[in-house]
Amino acid sequence: GAVVSQHPSWVICKSGTSVxxxxxxxxxxxxxxxxxxxxxxxxxxxxxTSNEGSKATYEQGVEKDKFLINHASLTLSTLTVTSxxxxxxxxxxxxxxxxxxxxxxFGDGTRLSIx
Amino acid sequence: xxxVEQSLFLSVREGDSSVINxxxxxxxxxxxYWYKQEPGAGLQLLxxxxxxxxxxxxxxxxxxxxxxxxxxxxxxADTQTGDSAIYFCAESYNNNDMRFGAGTRLTVKP
Lengths: 115, 110
Fold this sequence. Notes:
The complex is a heterodimer of chains A (115) and B (110).
Chain A: E1 4-7, E2 10-13, E3 19-25, E4 30-38, E5 44-51, E6 57-58, E7 67-73, E8 76-81, E9 90-98, E10 105-106, E11 110-114
Chain B: E1 4-6, E2 9-13, E3 18-24, E4 31-37, E5 43-50, E6 55-58, E7 61-66, E8 71-76, E9 85-92, E10 99-100, E11 104-109
Parallel strand pairs in B: 2-11
Antiparallel strand pairs in B: 1-3, 3-8, 4-5, 4-9, 6-7, 7-8, 9-10, 9-11
């Protein structure tokens, strides 16, 4: 079945650092990728939707300059958390949808801890 | 906005059936999903059902949809300890804008 790979799985870094998270679709072309944030014991909150080759569409309340999304190819999207601070610590999950418009397939998530 | 609600906890004994319930409010929902999340992992799509279907069965999983009441359930037969996880109900119109419930934490006791 469709596989979405997300890296890194866990990252710990100091406040002020920028962190890049990669999301790859391994066996299909992902025309649309999604980035979610999940707080402990809560549901997923959609941060942004990105289509290959175009700018991401951010949800209300999500800072575009803080969370930079690049979807440069049909198999790769990246989320960069710029100048990360402790309040950015969270579990970030990406998902991808192919041209067949089948349900989104999710990566395994990235646990980001900012000290 | 539109909501998806589900109970937060369910505890069953190994071998019993588990039934996880979900209600939603958006009458235009076309797709209804069940995802499983194990600790520290992403979401695994278990199954999904179209809104014009009443039931879908896949091995130990049975999904029932009551469109009139906007009620979705997931039944897991012969629940095993490996089924312990958080189960998310979700809905969307076109697979793009998905709305998730808060998740039901299923605990399976030996």
